[in-house]
Write a structure and sequence with these properties.
Blueprint lengths: L3 E5 L11 H14 L4 E4 L2 H6 L7 E5 L12 H14 L2 E5 L10 H7 L1 E2 L11 E7 L12 E5 L6 E2 L4 E8 L2 E11 L2 E6 L11 H15 L5
Parallel strand pairs: 1-2, 1-3, 3-4, 4-11
Antiparallel strand pairs: 5-8, 6-7, 6-9, 9-10, 10-11
């Protein structure tokens, strides 16, 4: 099994707005640059159901399944994810992942925030000004930057988060990147990453690389 599995938006996790194939390829490149082996799977339910104990990190880069019928493997996948989180695994959730894997209770508990239909939103795609905050290990050495992207706003908080980056909209600051630890598992949610242009930003790539390093140590005692 590879060190990292990228769950890419295919099937019921595809949508007309996000080019998941190109962004998953960009993420896989960053994983390889970090010295980890990687596999991209565009059937997230099947990939999670087949998670082996050697997988250190899961990258969720998939969309909202909406009302699409559940996969026949969804129940097995939910159980497999429960086991992985119990033993300790890293999860990097990118952009639309805030609306994904809705049939996975353990994922929602770990995620710490959700895209809520008809409540959450984003300003038009364009230059996003990213403000690095906090003293989390992932933020170490990072500085404020701009990137061509979407800025998710109005996500519903589901638990305590450790903020890493935020953006300003409507006179208020909104979290863009955060970290969480639940038991032996770790998560970083990065609301950036709409399309390949986001991954052309050296500063955003540095943030993701830092996140990968922290997440890969999730199962350390």
């Amino acid at each position: 099994m590879p060190d990292v599995v990228v769950l890419s938006g295919g099937g019921r996790y595809a949508d007309p707005w996000h080019p998941f194939a190109e962004t998953s390829a960009a993420l896989a490149e960053l994983v390889r640059e970090a010295g980890l082996t990687v596999e991209i799977d565009d059937d997230p339910d099947a990939a999670v159901a087949a998670l082996g104990d050697d997988v250190r990190l899961v990258v969720v880069n998939a969309g909202d399944p909406g009302d699409a019928p559940a996969s026949s493997q969804a129940a097995a996948a939910a159980s497999a994810l429960d086991r992985a989180l119990d033993r300790g695994i890293g999860v990097l959730a990118m952009h639309a992942a805030a609306a994904s894997l809705r049939a996975y209770p353990a994922y929602e508990r770990l995620l710490g925030g959700r895209w809520v239909r008809d409540v959450s939103w984003h300003p038009p795609f364009g230059e996003a000004r990213v403000h690095v905050v906090g003293d989390h290990a992932v933020a170490e050495g990072l500085v404020d930057f701009t990137v061509l992207d979407e800025r998710y706003t109005g996500l519903r908080r589901l638990g305590e988060i450790e903020p890493i980056a935020e953006h300003e909209e409507g006179g208020a600051w909104h979290p863009l990147v955060w970290a969480r630890e639940v038991g032996r598992s770790r998560l970083v949610y990065d609301a950036l990453g709409h399309d390949a242009r986001s991954y052309e930003s050296a500063a955003h790539r540095a943030l993701i690389t830092s996140a990968l390093g922290w997440l890969a140590g999730a199962d350390a005692p």
